[in-house]
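Input set for joint prediction.
Command: fold jointly, output tokens.
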Amino acid sequence: MDVYGLMAEFMEATDLLEAAQQAHDSGYVHMDAFSPFPIEGLSPLMGLRHTRLARVVLGGGLVGLVVGLGMQYYATVIDYPINVGGRPLASWPSYVPVTFEIIILFAAVATVLGMLALTGLPMPYHPVFNVAAFKEATSDRFFLLIEAKDSQFDLEKTRAFLQELDPVDVHVVEP
Amino acid sequence: METTPQEKPPVMGKNYSYASITEKISALVLRQGTPRGWLFGFGLAFALVMVLMTAVGYLLLVGVGIWGINMPVGWGFAITNFVWWIGIGHAGTLISAILLLMRQEWRTSINRFAEAMTLFAVACAALFPLIHLGRPWFFYWFIPYPNTLGMWPQWRSPLIWDFFAVMTYGLVSLMFWYVGLIPDLATVRDRAQRRFTKVTFGILAMGWRGSARHWHFYEQCYFLVAALATPLVISVHSIVGLDFAVSLIPGWHTTITPPFFVAGAILSGFAMVLTIAIPLRKFYHLEDLITQRHLDNMAKIMIVTGLLVTYGYLNDIFMAWYSGNEFEAFLVKNRFLGPYAPWYYLMLACNVLGTQLLWLKPLRRNVVVLFVISLVVNLGMWLERFIIVVVSLHRDYLPSSWGIFVATGWDYATLIGTLGLFAALLFLFIRFLPVVSMAEMRELVAESKPEEAAVGISRQRELTMEIEE
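tokens >
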């Protein structure tokens, strides 16, 4: 495969949204949109659902709960019990602050690592960076990429399709 | 996409485009050469960092005896400074997390440096309990690691809770700040001319492309971490409050301590945000990004938290009488008439009068007055921590064990040194990282184009209808 995909360049967020909608309706699946800020309504067109990261957070928090409570229980009841005036060894109210902090810490770390895993970052190389104009994608340009691996992809037909969307330019993305 | 009637002053100047936002903010990082004012400010701050290094170096050599602490006042400046610094950090998290969840758009231009302020304040704060340990090189005994001593940390002690709270707070604040920075790091990467800058920011941006997938998970992550940081920030100063409340010292052993500490933390934090924001917008010409409305809103938050703190002071007095506890009653008398009384009156003047002056619109709208009041409140909040620590400790139950605390030069050197550390880190941040979130500002630009957005949507509807037909 000598081409990674085709990328259309737009001036406005609304143009990109419109183009993505058209591409979606035309049956393209392997595509991506690039913008200098998040655009509402783009995610469903790219086939992205929203529940996965929330589960990661819950998982991290639950692990934190078990680790936090378990560690303190093990330390104060099993490994190093100290009888202080006959008070109960498993004095759970005093475990609450540390357990809470560990829950938050584990959940936050899980969220950030989960985000990195789901976005595929860090990724030092990506073909879209081969397009010279792409450096404006982090400032004021909007791009729609249709990847060559899409079953409907055909260099000429897809190019014609993208041209119809009234872009500033259509770029060929080298792999 | 409804647009509310614009009665309030705008959160940013008009005539900004995506590109001009990028240009203005990334230029602060990418400009060649360093402004002379920056060099002067950083030089001054760095000199104070050297003072801190000297003070801490001498402390490690000789011990905590170089400070004014004694029995009964074992906590002195170190814990005063710790509580003060960690409180300052709280406004950063409040602005970045709580106001984000409440969809307060005006937070956008100030959240980045407020978060940086949080990090640096936590760094300054974390120093104090460590150097106050007596043998700071054993600080890792706080950490529950497998050790040949067969020992565990004391899980029932608020000091261990505090260690976990501050550690979690520092790490979560760092992650939140870094995640927020990623899109802007990519912007700087793409605009950098020099290879070194490109590579450095390229590594930091981790290959961010701004793709829909990136934004999708990035936004979720940002909101989720904000949702985690919100209870965290409340818990941190509550736990700091518990350091005091769990003890039996008069004036500390009350249930109001944790929420009272949180209110004070937010007050001192917003005072510090204003102390930084006012010169920053002036010297870097950011007046139309950090607008009068931002300053006004922050001043109003200071009025509210000032009232909460005032309620705390009144409650102390009321409870001293209502509880019928003679030691509590003595504490209040000692605050008003004892050896530290002038500082107590100064504190009341700073925190009660100082904040309530902001009800007057001409004062609130005057940038110079607001700056002075922010300094006054910073001082007042420091004094509050000092009063809580020292006045309670120096005369507790047994008159034979009363004493007096007099700060030494080393006490002041350490305090001033951390101010220098804080300022030096801020100067480095302002020079090398984007001080305002460009991605979020672009969102504001996009939202301020209602006509284009509306056109886009109607066109989109037409198109989908055509396709359906």
